[in-house]
Amino acid sequence: MAITVRTFEKLGDAASAVMSDRGARFLAGGTLVMRAINEGDVAITTIVRTSDPALTQIRTAGARIELGAGVTMAQILANRDLAFLHPAARIVGGPAVRNMATVGGNLFAHAPYGDFTAALLALGATVSVSGGYSASDTPLDEFLSARDRGGTRGLVASVTLARPAAPDAFRFRKVSRVKPKGIAVLSIAALLPVAGGRIAGARVAYNGLSPAPMRARGVERALEGRSLDEAGIAPAIAACAEGISPSDDAIASAWYRREILPVHLKRLLLGQA
Ligand SMILES: Cc1cc2nc3c(=O)[nH]c(=O)nc-3n(C[C@H](O)[C@H](O)[C@H](O)COP(=O)(O)OP(=O)(O)OC[C@H]3O[C@@H](n4cnc5c(N)ncnc54)[C@H](O)[C@@H]3O)c2cc1C
């Protein structure tokens, strides 16, 4: 079936085109959209693109960082100011995928994908949308809930996050069977601010343990006021499975995911390889 390709100069016009046509899909890097088309997804009748430069901007001045939705994993890896994000960007597919895969596309990538989104969730990112859902910044947790209810409309323009106060305050770990670019068995991202030797305001997120990236709120609660040593993290490790609903799939069984989660969470919190 023929597919119409529509290209717009402005993101807002592209958003209107997507919202007014049920068969339209926005094309970012295309690593998932083009795969769907090639596999014969007949629901896609129109591809919408935009050349709006706003989508590929990276702003790193100051404590707030803004990433245009069209920024690729390769662009993040090429930016020294974004070094704290490199562990999360580096594990998205292989080099060819990373050259195309965008931040915005990752927000819509369904399980088992969404590793970079888990990192953004732990970093407390907000999402700015052009058209539809909300123009103002929406916390990523809320954005993902709306996405899963089918309530996300319009196009993501950018994500904004705070730079971690210390280089070691943000940690990311992906477990996969084929290294380095295999699909995640699970991923863990953790923002671990320390004040006076104690954790204050931890944010921990998982990918691969539920239908969408999720906050590990039990772990966050258990870490509050604790030190990052074996005894201090013990309650967090005990709480690590709270709220997860891992699936059995070709990558791993739910049982296996539950078994290895405490092992990898412990290594991440203790800063072990
Ligand atoms: C071989 C391979 C390996 C992969 N490995 C990983 C991995 O390890 N980890 C991982 O997380 N992902 C992985 N992916 C999935 C994918 O490459 C990434 O999730 C990527 O970030 C998706 O971005 P994209 O720009 O290619 O999305 P696209 O394919 O362009 O779009 C994906 C979806 O998002 C929508 N979309 C894109 N941008 C916007 C926007 N700005 N606003 C609104 N909607 C938008 C599109 O309409 C579409 O529905 C892999 C994919 C492949 C093919």
Overall description:
This protein has 273 residues and is an alpha+beta fold. The protein has 3 domains: 47 residues, no CATH class; 110 residues, Uridine Diphospho-n-acetylenolpyruvylglucosamine Reductase, domain 3 (2-Layer Sandwich), CATH 3.30.465; 102 residues, CO dehydrogenase flavoprotein, C-terminal domain (Enolase-like, domain 1, 2-Layer Sandwich), CATH 3.30.390.50. Helix content is 31%, strand content 22%. The strands form 4 sheets. It has a 5-stranded antiparallel sheet. The site of flavin-adenine dinucleotide has 29 residues, from strand 2, helix 2, helix 5, helix 6 and helix 7.
Helices and strands in order:
Blueprint: E1 4-8, H1 11-19, E2 24-26, H2 33-38, E3 46-50, E4 58-59, E5 64-68, H3 73-77, H4 86-90, H5 95-100, H6 103-107, H7 115-122, E6 126-130, E7 138-139, H8 140-148, E8 155-162, E9 170-176, E10 184-191, E11 194-195, E12 198-199, E13 203-207, E14 214-215, H9 217-223, H10 230-238, H11 254-269
Parallel strand pairs: 1-3, 2-3
Antiparallel strand pairs: 4-5, 5-8, 6-7, 6-8, 9-10, 10-13, 11-12, 13-14
Bound molecules: flavin-adenine dinucleotide.
